[in-house]
Amino acid sequence: MVKDLQSSSLLRQLQQERICSKMLRLLRSVMMVMILVIPGLLVSVNEAHLSYGHYQTSCPNVEALVKDTLVPIFLTDATAPASFLRLLFHDCQVQGCDASLLLNSERRNTGSEMISSKNFMIRNRESIGLIKSVVESECPGQVSCADIIALAAKESVAFTGGPQIQVPLGRKDSTSSSYKQADLSLPSPQVSVDGMLQIFKSKGMNLQESVAVLGARTLGVEHCLNIVDRLYNPKHTNSNAASANDMLEKGYEVVLKMQCPTRVPLTNLTFVPNDVTPLTFDNQYYRDIIFGRGLFGIDSSISKDPRTSPIVKSFAEDQNYFFQVFASAFVKLSSTNVLTGNLGQIRSHCSRLN
């Protein structure tokens, strides 16, 4: 009798332990899912129609198709990842992430954003069109050009050593494009810290994310045209006490003036690397700007401003932390003012309306 009671008690104990173990495993699974999709939870209500499984039935292989098409481009042009990332940023800053930047001027769209002087460095629009044609061959009429831009940008970050970012999908393409709006919306090289913070706050970013998103400039180069004003205009020189937060390290300033030797560049082909590792997505940008080796005034300013300098230092010291915050900022930026549902269209060809 006693043995039976002991056996029964032991059985109940084992069953309770199994239940607790199952609950613990379930809790861990839920926590892991939350960690994996946390960027999606940061998307604002206006972008609630985006989802991580948007193409699960209509085009389940879309991410693989985009990646496989990009790899040969990356291998033949080491600067391509930077251009895809820049393309996303410039597209999202104007009307939202709607592929309006890809539209050419035509009878129904006479004001292409590409006319704006602020977009003169944009490249690889035709490569987005190539990816689109590959996707169309397998999933006709399903995947938007706007989503392809977002996927190309996130693959560019990963390919160059940056974080693996999961982005929600379901954007539609715009039916308009405005170079005037591009002129107004794209920030100038002289943007202030206050201006920068306001721009990214409007995208739903917090202070850390606003500083992290500037780290995208760790990739690629900058044309001399955009930095000569800082190098040669007296109001931007180190001798001006009012520009205490816009300081260039003397040796770096000499190097920049050697690479950009005239106030008016003789050609648009003169450029300088954004940092010392322009082909690698890393935290070198922050390490450089701490010592006054940033191309723009905003670079020096965020390293000196009391609101942002602690964040710059944290990113310079901890690359994984930078990657984490950048991934969150990337999702917020790429989900800004998107067209979903019945708004917009899925273009058959990215450069023109249906």
From TrEMBL:
Site (Transition state stabilizer): 86
One GO cellular component term: extracellular region
Disulfide pattern: 59-139, 92-97, 145-350, 224-260
Binding of substrate, residues: 187
Domain Plant heme peroxidase family profile positions: 49-354
Transmembrane segments: 26-45
Subcellular location: Secreted
Pfam family, one: peroxidase
Domain of life of the organism encoding this protein: Eukaryota
EC number: 1.11.1.7
Keywords: Calcium, Disulfide bond, Heme, Hydrogen peroxide, Iron, Membrane, Metal-binding, Oxidoreductase, Peroxidase, Secreted, Signal, Transmembrane, Transmembrane helix
Catalysed transformations (reactions): 2 a phenolic donor + H2O2 = 2 a phenolic radical donor + 2 H2O
Main location per the UniProt record: secreted
UniProt cross-references to InterPro entries, sorted A to Z: Haem_peroxidase, Haem_peroxidase_sf, Peroxidase_pln, Secretory_peroxidase
Active-site residues, Swiss-Prot/TrEMBL: 90
Names of the cofactor(s): Ca(2+); heme b
Record-listed Ca(2+) 1 binding positions: 91, 94, 96, 98, 100
Amino acids binding Ca(2+) 2: 218, 277, 282
BP GO annotations: hydrogen peroxide catabolic process; response to oxidative stress
Cofactor annotation remark: Binds 2 calcium ions per subunit.
Molecular functions per Gene Ontology: heme binding; lactoperoxidase activity; metal ion binding
Similarity field: Belongs to the peroxidase family. Classical plant (class III) peroxidase subfamily.
Task performed by this protein: Removal of H(2)O(2), oxidation of toxic reductants, biosynthesis and degradation of lignin, suberization, auxin catabolism, response to environmental stresses such as wounding, pathogen attack and oxidative stress.
Database matches in PANTHER family: PEROXIDASE, PTHR31517
Protein's recorded name: Peroxidase
Natural source organism: Papaver somniferum (Opium poppy)
